Amino acid sequence: MIRLLKAASVLFAIAAAGWVAWWVVAANGQEAALEGWFQGRAAEGWQAETSAIETGGFPSRFTTRIAKLALADPDAGWAWSAPELVLDRPATDPTHVTAVLAPSQTLAVPGERAAIESSEMTAVLALFPGLDLQLREGSIVARDLAVVGQSGWRAGAKLVDAGLRRRTIEGEPPETHQLELTAQSVLLPDTLMKQIDPTGLLKPEVTALRLDALFVPDRQLDRHVIEDGHLGVRTLVLRRAEFDWDGMGLTARGRLDADAQGLAEGDIALSLSDWRRLLALARTSGALNDEVADAVEGALGLVALFNGSDELDVTLSFGRGRARIGPVPIGPAPRLLPP
Question: Which of 38, 100, 149, 184 has its CA 20 to 30 A from that of 82?
Answer without folding.
Answer: 184
